[in-house]
Amino acid sequence: PPSYHKMNLALGQGVRRLHVSAAFNAKAKVSMSRFEPSNYVSYEKLNENVNIVRKRLNRPLTLSEKIVYGHLDDPVGQDIARGHTYLRLRPDRVAMQDATAQMAMLQFISSGLPCVAVPSTIHCDHLIEAQIGGAKDLARAKDINAEVYNFLASAGAKYGVGFWKPGSGIIHQIILENYAYPGVLLIGTDSHTPNGGGLGSICIGVGGADAVDVMAGIPWELKCPKVIGVKLTGKLSGWTSPKDVILKVAGILTVKGGTGAIVEYHGPGVDSISCTGMATICNMGAEIGATTSVFPYNHRMKTYLEKTGRGDIASLADDYADLLVPDPGCEYDSIVEINLDELKPHINGPFTPDLAHPMADIGATAVKNGWPLEVKVGLIGSCTNSSYEDMGRSASVAKQALDKGLKCKAAFTITPGSEQIRATIERDGYSKILGDVGGMVLANACGPCIGQWDRRDVKKGEKNTIVTSYNRNFTARNDANPATHAFVASPEIVTALAIAGTLDFNPEVDYLTAANGEKFKLEPPSADELPKLDFDPGQDTYQHPPAEGGSKLRVDVSPTSTRLQLLEPFDKWAGGDLEDLQVLIKVKGKCTTDHISAAGPWLKFRGHLDNISNNMLIGAVNIENDGINKIKNQLTGEYGGVPDVARHYKANGLSWVVVGDDNYGEGSSREHAALEPRHLGGRCIIVKSFARIHETNLKKQGMLPLTFQIPADYDKIRPDDKISIKGLANFTPGKVIVNHSDGSKDDFQLNHTFNETQIEWFQAGSALNRMKELQ
């Protein structure tokens, strides 16, 4: 065959050919992970695709482009224009956390396929509530969530998906330790999936329906990302940490500045950041709306791969090093420059992760704005900052306080990122130091970062301040208290603030008072990037899918369950324009997926669409009355909760529309924020602009996400309007007619970003319906 002939040419003749051929084959066979010995790292294919595209585009490529275009379904024919065309991609693997995996697996089950087409995993980390401490909280979660864990474990076994049990750790830490590697393309059903960019991977957060496409072996669509370059010069030192890089970038780019783009870090400053530090920076890139973030392959990644038992991948990556860094002379759509020598520790918040303050300024700013100075709780860990180095630097600060007879003035919690981190920091004495200073070690899980926190030290509505090393600080996100002022910083700064007990303490210049009355300054933290001994893996928490396949296995869902519900297909498009849609709510201001489908206590219903729909938009502000979860039912004239009014409209055959503001649906990737409106009779969401993942999720479920051509037209819509959307037959939903209750009318233009495939999803009623039509 011709491919064999090519190989002959490439490998030369005779004896030398045999030798090179053996080396070639040895190189070609490196497993993607120890859990999938027969799935191999395919740098040859990546390289081949990159060469095809580079030749076609006739220009140097950024690293993001190499990895993304290297996974094109059709590198020869694919139309490529940054920011414009839709790419059809073949990701290497899929990862799902337990809160989103329920709906993803329910959708996969209804697809009727026997087994996943790419390596896939489920990670149990979202359903464990922080209450009294790690072991007890974990035991309680296993009991309360038994039905869901059993469903995920049995569905994983049946369909060939690896299952990481509760207690194993946070999905993104497990991916970094086991599955991410330079050049891999991974999609994950969680918005912080970009964490893997710290290991030179392109890891993108998606909704469950996107994961189902990839698991079904269908090419996955992504709008061709722009590339923002962040050039790092200088070196990190002192109190400045990797977290401060992304806190600074968030301040520069804002919560929507990265939308539609991959952020690519480069420059001489990169080498001063540890691999896990690079992961921290990529993780919180979700907060600027970026598609993902990535660092170029370097010796810090190589060391991390070797320390996590993947030296063979590191050796192979060395052989393909030129493939895993940007081409010299490549061009970025825009560039941000940060000098690490000049970067100071930062703290961001409250209520939004892009409100950045240098530590030197936060005290005065807080006083000016009336933010409480007393720090009630310091919380370290989370998927953003729970590495061995993070815990070591925090312990380094805590040890200094202990040596002077001090403990934390604030409450203090520690969330290890994985069972491996928990076991290793226990062995190496970090846990003891953090405990002795007043800390409580929580379960290896998301915990308070996603609102899984049974907080009891303040009353609901009591104004207070907390500081965390997490990534998001939206109103009420951590503790369901809208009066909590949450600030985000590095773990070492959080530890220092927990010890001092006040927001206006700057450890670079301020003094603490020791138990004996003497004044002292904390020295800048120092700690090993990786343990001197090997990592301690701790307890084995992984369930392999059965080797013989799962065709004989059953996955049961009880019809009376309150936690799980098999999905019914959504109705198809009827073929005409959408006439007289009732405005359900006109949303005022910031509306994240937390506002649309709250987490916390609602997480338990993530596998039951009808029950979780009772939280639809209950956090959104109604422009009519500035109220939350209080809208007028236009059929009865009475006020009620948003989900209740929506259900009443649906029961009476009245379809409805939501009107929203800028960056609608920012934050978590949860597709429930798109499934719920569809389930309760919504047809269309009209806003000034969308966050990327949410817009795609809406399209997947047969909704119409549309944007005002002129953003000020938002002001023309009244809360009791009826809206008609014209032009659906040839899918140019441009013209909108608004009927006001006083008999007057308005009309204006709307834009959409649907491509041909997505139009078919709308016409079929959902992407899943379309997948079944094509089988």
TrEMBL record:
Pfam families on file: Aconitase (PF00330), Aconitase_C (PF00694)
Region of interest (Disordered), ranges: 533-554
Cofactor binding note of this UniProt entry: Binds 1 [4Fe-4S] cluster per subunit.
InterPro entries membership: Acnase/IPM_dHydase_lsu_aba_1/3, Acoase/IPM_deHydtase_lsu_aba, Aconitase/3IPM_dehydase_swvl, Aconitase/IPM_isomerase, Aconitase_4Fe-4S_BS, Aconitase_4Fe-4S_dom, Aconitase_dom2, Aconitase_mito-like
Listed pathway(s): Carbohydrate metabolism; tricarboxylic acid cycle; isocitrate from oxaloacetate: step 2/2
Cofactors required: [4Fe-4S] cluster
Gene3D superfamilies found in the cross-reference section: Aconitase, Domain 2, Aconitase, domain 3, Aconitase, domain 4
Statement: the UniProt record of this protein carries the keyword Endoplasmic reticulum: no
Alphabetical keyword list: 4Fe-4S, Iron, Iron-sulfur, Lyase, Metal-binding, Mitochondrion, Transit peptide, Tricarboxylic acid cycle
Catalyzed chemical reaction(s): citrate = D-threo-isocitrate
Uppermost EC category: lyase
CC annotations in GO: cytosol; mitochondrion
One GO term of the biological process aspect: tricarboxylic acid cycle
Annotated CDD domains: AcnA_Mitochondrial
Domain Aconitase/3-isopropylmalate dehydratase large subunit alpha/beta/alpha: 65-501
Signal peptide: none
EC number in record: 4.2.1.3
Keyword presence, 4Fe-4S: yes
Subcellular location: Mitochondrion
GO MF: 4 iron, 4 sulfur cluster binding; aconitate hydratase activity; metal ion binding
All residue ranges annotated as the Aconitase A/isopropylmalate dehydratase small subunit swivel domain in the record: 582-709
Family statement drawn from the similarity comment of this UniProt entry: Belongs to the aconitase/IPM isomerase family.
Primary role: Catalyzes the isomerization of citrate to isocitrate via cis-aconitate.
Name this protein carries in UniProt: Aconitate hydratase, mitochondrial
Organism: Oncorhynchus kisutch (Coho salmon)
Designated gene of the protein: ACO2
